[in-house]
Amino acid sequence: MRVRLVLAAAALLTAAVAPLAHAGGADGHHTIDRPAGSHLRDGHLHDGRFTNGLFTDGRLRDGHFTNGLFVDAYGTVADDSTVTLSGSYRCLDDSAGPVFVGSTLVQGDRSTGIGGTRAVCDGHLHTWTNSSVVKDPAYVRGAARVEATLMQLSGTGLPLPRFLATEKTDVELR
């Protein structure tokens, strides 16, 4: 029951504060605005920012890794209007509270939160996949934008979000 409550709170907080997460590093997290066509494959980001298992775009500072998040270049829209987005993340510490990967899909003037995934913060690279059925009107195949957030919930009582990393990138919905 408690896990369901935390997941529900995370989903609501992600939807409510997602625009704040994309404001650009207000609490020291890294925001990445990646161009279309760059993607993570076989542990290497093909626009040159992820090589040999180390982030090279500023997330390796003073010899220490910081949190990171990537969105795959492609998402899917199924015949039943299920949207699936995916990517990779790495985070170091979840001792202050659970960490989630949230994603928002933007196409035209429409923006919708697409699921949430509980993150494993062990310093290793992990994949995430978020899915949601979105109708009225449904998303269509073609160009879109994903805004993803690596967010930690912490505090007693009502947990408060702490944004660890964000990424905004163009994707192709197939």
Shape: globular
Count of helix runs: 1
Helix content: 10-25%
Instruction: State the separation between the terminal residues, measured CA to CA.
Output: 36 Å
Element-level helix/strand string: HEEEEEEEEEEEEEEE
Taking the sheet with the most strands, its summary is: 9 strands, mixed
Radius of gyration: 16 Å
Instruction: Find the count of extended strands (DSSP E, 2+ residues).
Output: 15
Strand content: over 45%
Structural class: mainly beta
Mean pLDDT: 76
Low-confidence stretches: 1-59
Structure notes:
There is one protein chain. The chain has 174 residues and is mainly beta. Helices cover 11% and strands 50% of the residues. It is built from one helix and 15 strands; from the N terminus they run H-E-E-E-E-E-E-E-E-E-E-E-E-E-E-E. The chain has one helix spanning 2-21; strands spanning 30-34, 40-41, 44-45, 50-51, 54-55, 60-61, 64-65, 68-71, 74-77, 82-90, 99-107, 110-118, 126-133, 142-154, 160-173. The strands form four sheets. Strands 1, 8, 9, 10, 11, 12, 13, 14 and 15 form a nine-stranded mixed β-sheet that branches. A two-stranded antiparallel ribbon has the order 2-3. Strands 4-5 form a two-stranded antiparallel ribbon. It is globular. The N and C termini lie far apart (36 Å).
